[in-house]
Structure formats: structure tokens, C-alpha cells
Write the C-alpha cells for this entry.
Amino acid sequence: MKALVTGAAGFIGGQLSHALWQSGWDVVGIDNFSYGNRDNLRFADTDLNDNVQTMDIRDYEAIARLFEAERFDIVYNIAGIAPLPDCQSNPTEAASVNILGLVNLLECSRRMGVEHLVQASTNAIYENETNFPSIESSYPPPTLIYPSTKYCAEQFCRSYAETYGMNITCLRFANVYGPHIDCLRKQPPFVGYMIRELYYDRVPDFHSDGNQRRDYIYIDDLIDLAMRVSKRKGFDAVNVSSNQNYSVKELYSMASELMGKSIPARYNPSQHYWEKYPSLYEGVYPIRLEILDHEVNKYSLCDNRHAMREYGWSPKVSMREGLKRVIESECEMLKKHDS
Ligand SMILES: NC(=O)c1ccc[n+]([C@@H]2O[C@H](COP(=O)([O-])OP(=O)(O)OC[C@H]3O[C@@H](n4cnc5c(N)ncnc54)[C@H](O)[C@@H]3O)[C@@H](O)[C@H]2O)c1
């Protein structure tokens, strides 16, 4: 059985490729290396770099040739532009990768008879939800560019499933954490950023009062579900969440304790959240500060009962255990990076 993993050199794509390889799948990966790197493909028991080609999911001709040559059984579209301010400040790029890139994969999957396509979606599409925990079937549409691209991508998935009878699953990931999380990019995910600052004994910059709560999912639990959904017929959208949320303060306190550090964090006004992206604050129509405030203070909690009932899945890794594993791997990576 052969799987295509797009975004294979990224955090989630690399780990998923490894898990598929360990389960006996023939894995082909593609990545344009705009965010990913080859270290994400090196594991204790194998190096998957030879399985991964440099290719852009927006290059229809190249993708079509690959599908014809390889005859995939399943396609995992994990490639995407994930950092919210990157999408907000470059919406054309965000839409072309997160929407048009997916459409190329849907079309090639249709033509070549791929059995199942799994799309990396996000719980950020619930950004305007006010009822919690959020459920898959009903929610107000999102506002910001990143969730809007993922929302549109899901509509294309639904369209292909309904029009052609294809089997397509959109997995709406909560905040994902685990080894290989990227802590060096311009706007790293919260867990990666917090551990990096503690590692270097620096005062981290957080926003608002630190009481805002988000839900998380450990990478192994996500992969477990991603591998279970492949037998499902038709279209499905599934929350991938631990159904437990944590505040910034709670996570920072847990990480500080696990790393044996005691560095009080700095709490900045939420309006400064994307100040590394000054273009967003400029021009005739600068970003509305209440939108930033809403994003920073957003409460997220996704209902995971659909995943449990439909796929017999349940999250296994506690936040404390997961955080311990990320700290270990991130500190090792930063040590190597500095030497
Ligand atoms: N990490 C999270 O918390 C999270 C949460 C919800 C959804 N997601 C989604 O999951 C997916 C993976 O996230 P991640 O955290 O591993 O991000 P990542 O940035 O580590 O990985 C994305 C990969 O896609 C590649 N890529 C980008 N554009 C491409 C293109 N045009 N063609 C081919 N490859 C391209 C990048 O180089 C990178 O290796 C993304 O689609 C993201 O939106 C992630």
C-alpha cells in the first residue's frame, strides 16, 4: 500500500511519514521546503530523506506526473502555510498553497482513483464559535485569512466527495505539540516558543493576561487518528483534540517546573501580538485591533466524541507527559543547533 504525504518535511508531515513507514506503508513524501527541513525526516531507526522529493503542491503538471507514476492508495495533504501572521501578511501565497494546492491534489486523486484523501484542517475555523466544546456540524464561519483558507479547502473536499463519490476526511487539529515542533521560525507555535525561551534563560513575551485557554493534541494521538480514518467512506470532518484546554499561565508553569527554571514571563497588550509583521499595522486599512484582541484571547475547546465513536480513538498522552517529551527533544535540538 502506497501513501503520499505532502508537507513531509514539516513537523506533522515528518512524524506521520515515519509512523506510516513503521506500519509497513510505502511512503512517498513531497515538500517545497518553504518551512520544513530535512532534519524532520531523520529518526533513530531510519532516515526518510530518500523518500521525499522537492515539489510544490501548486505545480499541477509535476503533481499529475507523480500520481501517474506512483499510483497512491491514500493521500495525506499535510502541506500548508500554518503560521497565522504569515497567512495574514501574504494572503495570495496562503490562498494559493492552502486552497489551490489542495485542489490540485483532489483533481489528481480523482483522475487516478486514490481510495482516500486526508486533509489537514484546523480548529482555528471555530474562531468565532461561542458554544463550547465546538462540534463539527455547526459553527459560524471564520474571519482571519488562515482559517478562511482552511474553511474554503474543506468546502472543496466536500465538493469532490459529493460530486464524485470520493472518500475524503478533513481532520481539524487542535494545537499540535510534540518532538520536532518548530521553535526557530519567525512566529513559532506557543509550546515551541515557551520551551526555547526557557532553554536560553530568557524572559518570554506573552500577550494579554495569560489566562486565555486553548486545547491541544499530542502528535502521536493525532497520528493514531489519521491512520484510523482511511477506511471511512464518503466525506467526514473530525475534531482532533484532547478535549482539555490549558491557559498560557498553566502551560508556562508546567514547562518551568519540568525544566527546573523560574523566570517570570512578560505579559504584553494583545494589540502587540503580530508586531513582527509591521505591514499588518500599516496602510489605509490596518488590521483592526479588536480582531487581534479576539485572536489572542480566543477560547478553544473542541468536542472529540465524534472521533471516539466513529473511529474507536481516544487520546492517550497527557499534557505533562507530552510536554516532557517535547522539552527533551527540543533542548537536544537547540544544543545541536548552537554547537
Ligand atoms: N501544528 C499545528 O498546531 C496545526 C494545527 C492545525 C492545523 N495544522 C495544519 O497541519 C499542517 C501541518 O502543520 P505543521 O505544524 O506540520 O506545519 P509545518 O510548517 O511544520 O509543515 C508544513 C510543511 O508544508 C510544506 N509546504 C508549504 N507549502 C508547500 C507547498 N506549496 N508545496 C509543498 N510543500 C509545502 C512546508 O515546507 C512544511 O514542511 C498544516 O497544513 C497546518 O495548517 C497544524
The CA atoms of residues 15 and 63 lie 22 Å apart. The domain at 2-178+216-243+301-317 is CATH 3.40.50.720 (Rossmann fold). The chain has a mean pLDDT of 97.
